[in-house]
Amino acid sequence: MLDRIQRLHRAAQGRHEKTARRAEAALDALARSGDPVTVRGVAEAARVSRSWIYSPGCSGQLWLTSNGGQTWHAVTF
Fold first, then answer.
1. Ranges of H-type helices in the chain
2. d(CA 10, CA 24)
3. Residue 10 has what pLDDT?
4. Dihedral of the CA atoms 6, 15, 63, 67 (nearest 10)?
5. Is the dihedral of CA 14, 51, 22, 20 positive or negative?
6. pTM above the 0.85 mark?
7. Along the 77 residues of the chain, how does pLDDT read in single tens digits?
8. Buried b / exposed e along 48-74 (16+ C-beta atoms within 10 A)
9. What are the domain boundaries of the chain?
10. Is the distance from CB of 36 to CB of 71 less than 8 angstroms?
């Protein structure tokens, strides 16, 4: 039983890491494109939910502020 739990844990961890890499790649692509970077845009590009980006377990933090209609971003993964 413990072996099964360990395999499930490793699989979940692998899915999380893969999702984090997709989110990071999406954020980088959006930032390079010069388009506004938004949580919705990152979520759609990475195929993740917006709630995943905000979740405590997310390996990155996306901070968005609005400045004169422009969206600025900073990210740490």
1. 2-33, 39-46, 50-54
2. 21
3. 94
4. -170
5. negative
6. no
7. 779 999 999 999 999 889 888 888 888 888 788 877 788 888 999 999 988 888 766 645 554 433 444 555 555 44
8. beeeebeeeebeeebeeeeeeeeeebe
9. 2-76
10. yes
